[in-house]
């Protein structure tokens, strides 16, 4: 059996463990749902869960962890990734939500997958939103968005949009970075 088949079988077996909650020793509560999980798998994959379970935090004494800042479907998708290393059905919306969750739980590989998906789907209509998002959660995404604005976006059109007006008011420093970038580009012509 080659390495790929072994890893694929391991991934499938761990998904079975997750789906059947065999030997689960903690529950994650999110919205009105409860998901039984395994501390050792979460701790092995996420430094945040590792610290949570090995220290004398409330979660290590209780058998429940309340997840309040991500939605159930994002949590479930993140858990499938933690157990299997697989991610399916990314969309612009859930890739952003997953990137936030991956950032929070320090899941670097998942963060990179989400960031690559967002970069591959960047366009003139979503570049400011992704720039803002990257500024908060992923420097690589921010840098890519800045490069996109510099190389591909038509700033004369972008600056006339309501999105730019909102962006300028809510993200003043970041908007100044964009303006400076465009000014430097125009001076180099």
From TrEMBL:
Domain (BTB): residue spans on this chain: 24-88
A Pfam match: BTB
Organism listed in the record: Trichonephila inaurata madagascariensis
Domain of life the protein comes from: Eukaryota
PROSITE patterns linked to this entry: BTB (PS50097)
Cleaved signal peptide residues: none
Name of the protein in question: BTB domain-containing protein
Listed InterPro entries: BTB/POZ_dom, SKP1/BTB/POZ_sf
């Amino acid at each position: 059996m080659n390495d790929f088949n072994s890893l694929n079988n391991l991934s499938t077996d761990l998904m079975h463990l997750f789906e059947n909650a065999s030997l689960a020793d903690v529950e994650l509560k999110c919205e009105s749902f409860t998901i039984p999980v395994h501390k050792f798998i979460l701790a092995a994959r996420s430094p945040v869960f590792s610290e949570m379970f090995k220290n004398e935090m409330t979660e290590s004494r209780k058998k429940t962890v309340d997840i309040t800042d991500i939605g159930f479907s994002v949590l479930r998708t993140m858990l499938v990734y933690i157990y299997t290393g697989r991610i399916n059905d990314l969309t612009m919306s859930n890739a952003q939500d997953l990137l936030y969750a991956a950032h929070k739980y320090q899941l670097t590989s998942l963060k990179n997958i989400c960031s690559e998906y967002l970069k591959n789907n960047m366009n003139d209509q979503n570049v400011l939103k992704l720039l803002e998002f990257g500024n908060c959660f992923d420097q690589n995404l921010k840098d890519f968005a800045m490069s996109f604005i510099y190389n591909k976006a038509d700033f004369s059109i972008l600056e006339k949009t309501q999105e730019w007006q909102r962006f300028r008011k809510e993200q003043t420093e970041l908007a100044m970075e964009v303006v400076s970038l465009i000014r430097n580009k125009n001076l180099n012509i």
